Amino acid sequence: MARSTSHDLRVFHPMEIVMPESQSHHNVLLARLREHLQEERYGRCASRNYPSDARRFLRYLAHRGQSIESVAPADIDRYVNGLRRRRDRRALPAAWRRAHRAAIQMLLRLVHGRWPPEIAPTGADEIAEQELVNGYDAWMVELRGLSASTRERARDEARLLLRWLRDHRTSLALLSVAQLDAYIAARGTSMRRTSKVTMISTLRGVLRYLYGCGLMPVDLAGAIEGPPIYALEGIPSTIRREDIERALEAARRDHSPLGRRDYAIMMLLSTYGLRAGEIARLCLSDIDWRHERLHIRHVKTGACSELPLLRGPADALLDYLKYARPKTTVREVFLRALAPYRPLCRGGAIYATVGRRLQAVDVSLTGKRGAHVFRHSRAASLLSGGVSIKVIGDVLGHRSEQSTAVYLKLATAELRAVALDLPGVSQ
Predict the structure, then answer these.
(1) Residue 310: CB partners within 8 Å, gap ≥ 6?
(2) 293 exposed, middle or buried (CB, 10 Å; 0-12, 13-18, 19+)?
(3) Cβ(286)–Cβ(334) under 8 Å?
(4) What is residue 351's predicted lDDT score, i.e. its pLDDT?
(5) Distance set, CA 417 to CA 25, 162, 411, 413, 414 (Å)
(6) Whether residue 275 lies in the annotated active site
(7) 224: how many CB neighbours lie within 10 A of its CB?
(8) Active-site choice (325, 372, 376, 378)
(9) SS3 sequence, 79-125?
(10) pTM of the full structure
(11) I need a surface site. Which of 30, 234, 244, 269 has the fewest CB within 10 A?
């Protein structure tokens, strides 16, 4: 069953709707919904059921005397939870309710341009907090040139701090070190040590901005400390080569569009040790078939690499492009397997792909379970093959040898070979 997405859609122009509450208005909406389903190449089931479910919801609104432009998320919940079977008046199964909700949300995105709508701040405090966060974001762009992901994390941290202050009936001007410690303790209850370090580092940036704007009388950024993180502290998670081969072979035997896509993704992961985001952002123009090269944009460092297009990954990519990739104008290589055929969302979809394929062959990992285990395993195999740290760093797209040095801890056999016997120790 096709599921809806959160992508923005074309909003109706007011001139297209002459009588908002008339039957003709509903017909225009339903016609646009059918057109969108056809444009996005949804399957026959969704193309048949979505307009029918949307028509039923429009009749419900007409009976209540409510316009579709005034619908709120609570209205959808009330409607979907009240749906009953016609023959026995029992509640609809959960899967059917999800299908009705997906059809309604798609219709509402056609009307509003996006759904769910952004909740605008209402009270004076909320409006002031939103203005402060917007100013902080503009400062991060203009004066620091931070990336979108970094700014998003910083904005979220600023909102959480301001909300905590509001809930505890205090203000930035009265914020003390003890209150700041209480906030950090509440935030870090379920965090790992590395996550706490990231959170505190982000919070320091928020506090420096607030002090620089004159909203805090004292700069408290230097008053907070996070847990210590030591260089080369943790051992990277890895996966055995035989387990990788099992997962690859299982994916290779799956000739469905999803199987061909997953096999190509896993071949890139296991061969080059790419990051999940680098695979998600790989475009058709990045594959140089004539010169047998791959152009990789490293998401973490911003650098670009040219890698040789080896036979295994090349065959997997070609098989996916010829027999499984949907026909679309999108330039990213890897797309959703179901309509709407859009690029995979960052690295999360790659993480899910790896987890699903490893679980299918009964491979369980104790550490990290995402695409990074393939990256760690590739580094370990290169180390065991005697490849230098510099070359491994070039393959993985590291900016410095210090980043690659972390993987030295994976070469336990090589380290044992150079270890010296301790004097006076009996065997």
Answers:
(1) 271
(2) middle
(3) no
(4) 86
(5) 78, 55, 10, 6, 5
(6) yes
(7) 16
(8) 372
(9) HHHCCECCCCCCECCHHHHHHHHHHHHHHHHHHHCCCCCCCCCCCHH
(10) 0.68
(11) 234
pLDDT, tens only, 173-209: 999 999 999 999 998 888 888 788 889 999 999 999 9
Joined together, the tokens standing for residue 13 give 């122009």
Instruction: Verify cis geometry, omega within 30 degrees of 0, for the bond prior to 257.
Output: no
Catalytic residue among 42, 209, 263, 407: 407
User: Which of the residues 204, 275, 298, 325 is marked catalytic?
Assistant: 275
Which one is catalytic: 109, 336, 375, 376?
A: 375
Q: Catalytic: 323?
A: no
Kindly name the residue from 255, 300, 356, 399 that is annotated as catalytic.
300
Question: Bridge-partner residues for 139, per DSSP?
Answer: none
> Active site includes 261?
no
Is residue 85 within 8 Å of 100, Cβ to Cβ?
no
> Among candidates 342, 261, 338, 343, which has minimal Cα distance to 45?
338
Distance from C-alpha of 40 to C-alpha of 319, rounded to nearest angstrom: 23
Closest by CA position to 238, among listed 355, 358, 376: 376
The yes-or-no answer on residue 90 being catalytic is: no
CA distances from 357 to 146, 266, 274, 360 (A): 35, 9, 17, 5
Q: Active-site residue 85, yes or no?
A: no
How many Å apart are CA 160 and CA 191, to the nearest integer? 15
At 406-424, the pLDDT tens digits run: 666 555 555 455 444 444 5
Cα distance between residue 130 and residue 121, in whole Å: 7
Residue pair 296/278 in contact (Cβ under 8 Å)? The answer is yes
The C-alpha atoms of residue 19 and residue 27 are separated, in whole angstroms, by 11
Residue 372: active-site member? yes
